[in-house]
Amino acid sequence: MQSNQPTARIWPLMLFSYLGMMALAIAINFLPVFLTTMSTDLGGSTGLSDGQLGLIGSMTFVGLVCGIVLTGPLADRIGARIFAVGGNALIAVGLAMLHRASSYEWVMASAFVMGFGAGSLDMILSPVVSAIQSSKRTLSLNLLHGFYCIGAVVTILVSTVALKNGIGWREVSLGLLPLPLFIGVAFCVVRLPQLIHESTTRIRMRKLILKPVFIALMIAICLGGATEAGMAYWLPAYAEKTLGFSRFASGMGLVGFSIAMVVGRMGILLLPARINTVTLMLVCSVATAILFPIASFAGSKEIAMAACVLAGLTGSCLWPSTLAVAADRYPNGGATMFGILAAMGNLGGIVMPWIVGTVADATTMRWGLATATLCPVAMVVLLVWLGRRNKMMGDE
């Protein structure tokens, strides 16, 4: 099932892949909205400590990375279906566990289960879409990851409205459960492609990870994940505590950032097909490197907030476009290659928020956020090197 198949056979799978990305977004973005109420509900009169609340999010990402690393090599051997179905099923199980959770330990277990399911989906959906849209991978993968941002916006808004109206996290988790359940059932019946074409042999990962270009792509997606997470994770706290916006306005700033990422990834449709992927990433990296210092040091809080939101637009293409470049360059990399790249991207997303916080503790939050500027700057250097070494590499 390749890109030359009839549209009627491709689009059901594309639709379920897009919805799968939204289910992935539920697993990642649902719990943070309810941390304050979880502290009261599970921690008694004293509440849970900040460290305990932070570990809930960490457990989600531990599950995410485990799901990516453990399932990637298996998908090349036994196919995509079990992981597309299983990933959605685990997210549904995690939400059901949350609905019944009565202790902190149970919430931690639920977070890991949802994270593992999200990791399985994160690993499998990109190679599936890459296989059926091989002639336009940059566009297709940006659209796919754009639906993650749509899922994040929907999840945050639904959760925020529920919280404002006194609806608890247990009830909301039950309300969100039907989506991954439905998608899991859909993946049971929809036709899935081979992740590697029959006429090719999967490249061995021991060989691939020693190639200079692939090493550069691993670093690039790590920087892309760090660029995105460095701003997204700290934006509400920065807007409230440093810029002086209200808690609601600060939260809406994060929603605006996510919407800007949707616009950026969906906006790929409007760009001329002749634009080279590496050139697109280079322009966006330069723009992001300019916006981060403005967001950090602008004298006007409105200008600073606008720069924060616009960084979502300019940084939106870095992660999915790196996947597209890798898939074009190494079409026989298989799910394992996508798994390695996804793991590196999430590594950047885990490390950069910690670096920003550590620098902020030693100086100020402005300087902490400004530290994230190093990521798009390093990306510029890396992309210039890639462009010189591999002319038109993104179009091969």
Structural commentary:
- With 396 residues, the protein is mostly helical.
- The protein is 80% helix and 0% strand.
- The protein is globular, with a radius of gyration of 20 Å.
- Mean pLDDT is 86; it is low at 1-6 and 392-396.
Briefly say what this structure is.
This protein is mainly alpha-helical and 396 residues long. The protein is built from 17 helices and no strands.
Q: How many strand units?
A: 0
- Large-scale geometry: globular
Approximately how much helix is present in the residues? over 70%
What integer is the average pLDDT?
A: 86
Proportion of beta-strand residues:
under 5%
| Rg of Cα set | 20 Å
Order of helices and strands: HHHHHHHHHHHHHHHHH
Distance between the termini: 21 Å
| Low-confidence spans | 1-6, 392-396
Sheet/helix structural class: mainly alpha
> Strand count, sense and closure of the main sheet?
none
Number of DSSP helical runs: 17
Keywords:
396 residues, mainly alpha, 0% strand, disordered N terminus, disordered C terminus
Itemize the secondary structure elements and their pairings.
Layout: H1 7-33, H2 35-43, H3 50-78, H4 81-100, H5 104-132, H6 137-164, H7 169-176, H8 178-189, H9 205-208, H10 212-241, H11 247-266, H12 277-297, H13 301-314, H14 318-329, H15 334-362, H16 365-371, H17 374-389
